[in-house]
Design goal:
The protein has helices at residues 2-19, 24-33, 36-43, 58-74, 87-93, 110-120, 134-142, 166-172, 183-191, 203-209, 219-225, 238-248, 266-275, 309-312, 334-337, 353-360, 370-382, 384-399, 404-415, and strands at residues 49-55, 78-84, 101-104, 122-128, 146-152, 177-180, 197-199, 229-236, 255-261, 280-282, 300-302, 318-321, 343-345, 364-366. It has 418 residues and is an alpha/beta fold.
């Protein structure tokens, strides 16, 4: 199985080398990896102590942030290395002040794994949530480097739990401990012989709970909203926008909308704006140019930039979180939940435990089409008691699930890791 995996890996690298010319994202994926070892050489000296975090993408980085912040306090003499698999993670966080070195993870060949680990020489390694690269994990095990999984989630359909997947189960044996989000994951790992587990919860709860304590003021959003009710549509894709547009185009004038598309593409933003039949302004044409002239009278504000959504949620009365209407993957519902506002999502959310749980508590609503979306948004707008009660459920949900970071920190202290 190991031989088959490595052959398949090299075939995949060859295919990606060809198709990168047809896709901007794949081109970034391939070109960025060519710089990895040079970046490490510039950022890491032979005498440096390091701790390595691997994150698949941006969401996993956010899960890692509370632990990184904790380690920067408890291990101030260590450099933090963060690796990403996807361009959306790396391109957004390559200049983050939380890490000393940020790189793309090289493709999982034996040679790359050995060279990468020899260059950064980590005393402690964290994989966040998932992404189990066998050659990297095997190399870490061979070098006796302590490796932990944090905010881990496992599902029974994963390869580890198939009778023929001994190779992947061997890779899991490289982890010294698994910090898991739920009991289901713990039971699944126990079914294949792993008992070095603890259900610590999801570190994202710790991450988002801190947002409410920060300064979330955005004067231009306050000016846009005024005293009107505001629905924030965060990280939306075209499928989400199709679900939302019927209500947006028929909503009362005292209901305002902020739409923050997940992908900032000028052409797609223009198409979206043309589908809206009420006065709409773009961040790129107003705030970015120092022009606030039309903000006061607009009903829809499209935020065609990145980095503002967490603060914008502070101004929301109702939130629609994107990704669930199609197959892109539901985006972070905990960011708005911490502000105690009701949440609406699309129909595809079963792989997101926090969404499943919050829906069972009646703090979140899933819609399959524009009719259902219009119905629930209308009810939330018109019934303030219903809206406030639902929002309270969301706020309490976040508050009652914090603490994963402290559990991990205590484990590191007890075992003197790092």
């Amino acid at each position: 199985m190991s031989l088959f995996y490595n052959i398949l890996l090299y075939i995949s690298i060859g295919i990606l080398s060809i198709v990168q010319h047809l896709s901007k994202k794949i081109k970034l994926f391939m070109a960025g990896r060519k710089q990895t070892f040079q970046i490490i050489a510039r950022g890491i000296s032979p005498q440096d102590k390091t701790i390595w975090f691997h994150c698949a993408s941006l969401g996993e980085f956010e899960q890692g942030v509370p632990v990184i912040e904790s380690l920067k306090t408890s291990h101030p003499n260590h450099k933090i290395v963060v690796s990403f698999f996807s361009p959306s993670g790396y391109e957004n966080k390559k200049n983050t002040s939380l890490a000393d070195v940020v790189v793309y993870l090289p493709m999982d060949t034996k040679r790359n794994a050995k060279k990468f680990i020899q260059m950064i020489r980590p005393s402690l390694v964290f994989f966040v949530k998932y992404e189990f690269w066998p050659n990297f994990l095997t190399e870490l095990k061979q070098q006796n480097i302590k490796t932990l999984l944090i905010s881990g989630v496992f599902r029974k359909e994963q390869l580890f739990f198939k009778p023929y997947a001994g190779f992947m189960r061997k890779a899991l044996a490289s982890f010294d401990h698994f910090f898991l989000q739920d009991n289901t994951s713990k039971e699944l790992l126990e079914s294949i012989g792993f008992t070095n587990t603890i259900v610590s919860g999801d570190t994202r709860f710790d991450r988002v709970s801190r947002q409410i304590e920060m300064d979330n003021t955005l004067d231009f959003i306050a000016r846009f909203k005024k005293n009107d009710l505001c629905i924030v549509c965060g990280s939306t894709w075209e499928e989400d926008q199709d679900v939302l547009l019927e209500y947006i185009n028929q909503a009362p004038k005292n209901v305002k909308f902020i739409i923050a598309p997940h992908a900032i593409d000028a052409g797609k933003v223009s198409v979206l704006k043309n589908k809206i039949n009420t006065q709409t302004v773009l961040y790129s044409q107003t705030i970015a140019k120092g022009n606030t002239k039309n903000i006061d009278t607009a009903q829809v504000f499209i935020i065609d930039t990145i980095g503002l959504l967490a603060k914008i949620y502070h101004y929301a009365d109702i939130v629609y979180v994107g990704g669930g209407a199609g197959t892109k993957g539901l985006h972070n519902i905990l960011e708005p939940a911490t502000f105690g506002v009701p949440i609406v999502i699309g129909k595809n959310y079963n792989n997101f435990p926090e969404a499943v749980k919050l829906r069972s508590l009646a703090g979140l609503f899933s819609v399959e089409n524009s009719t259902q979306c219009k119905t629930i948004l209308s009810k939330l707008v018109e019934d303030s008691n219903f809206r406030n009660k639902t929002g309270m459920i969301c706020g309490h949900f976040v508050d009652s699930n914090t603490g994963a970071t402290n559990t991990i920190a205590k484990y590191l202290e007890i075992h003197k890791l790092g």
